[in-house]
User: Fold this.
Amino acid sequence: MTDVLERIAAYKREDVAARKAAVPQDAVEARAREASAPRGFRAALDLHVVETGRPALIAEIKKASPSKGLIRPDFDPPALARAYERGGATCLSVLTDGPSFQGDDAYLAAAREAVALPCLRKDFLVDPWQVAESRALGADCILIILAMIDDALAAELLAEAERFGMDALIETHDEAEMARACKLGGDLVGINNRSLRTFEVDLGVTELLSILSPVRALLVAESGIFTPEDVQRVSDAHAQAVLVGESLMRQDDVEAATRALMAV
Ligand SMILES: O=C(O)c1ccccc1NCC(=O)[C@H](O)[C@H](O)COP(=O)(O)O
Assistant:
């Protein structure tokens, strides 16, 4: 694991232990069952691709990051969610991690309530308990970062997501992780173009890994997408969706920027 992931995993384990002590498994499951029904995340991406023949956008609500520091000072998750929806996003990704991304669980609920779009809870999952917690918070999809966990835990997270009627985005960074994703058998696979060692982004990673991805998986190119040409480039490499944060978060007019980014 890279230094940044080691650091995040360490504080996540402590945080989850405290959360579990306060809300044990049966209680978090009860909350998950009371949450509003999951919106089909992968189904929405699929529908967009079938109807338009163009890649779908997963638009990220991201205040700050380890690589860039503060990205968006005037941060209003419901307003951003609405701007993304009007601009044509198919799904949202909402950072809930506090220490590294200045995220918050409340941002997920607030953004989701403001729109009709399915929402990914963008956080670092190190315990199956977090899947029920994510559902209780309203998430329609969870993120499984293979660089952070072993295959047994990844399979548990995937099974839990299925049990709660959620989708799971399985994130890969290299050939070895893509091979693990193929064995795991998920149907939504991400390729993250950002190196977790150097934080550099290289869209060539999508080009390299896409040919190794599971055949029935919908492929998402993540990170470092700034222009319509970038969208076209990863689309040419068979990505059917793009996950974009920073480039849209830095715009004054997020709705117009969203429309312009995807107009290729
Ligand atoms: O964004 C970071 O600096 C980062 C650092 C360490 C782990 C994960 C990180 N980002 C998470 C993401 O996957 C991105 O927020 C997402 O793909 C959007 O990327 P971008 O469009 O480049 O903001």
Observations:
- Residues 3-262 form a domain with the TIM Barrel fold (CATH 3.20.20.70).
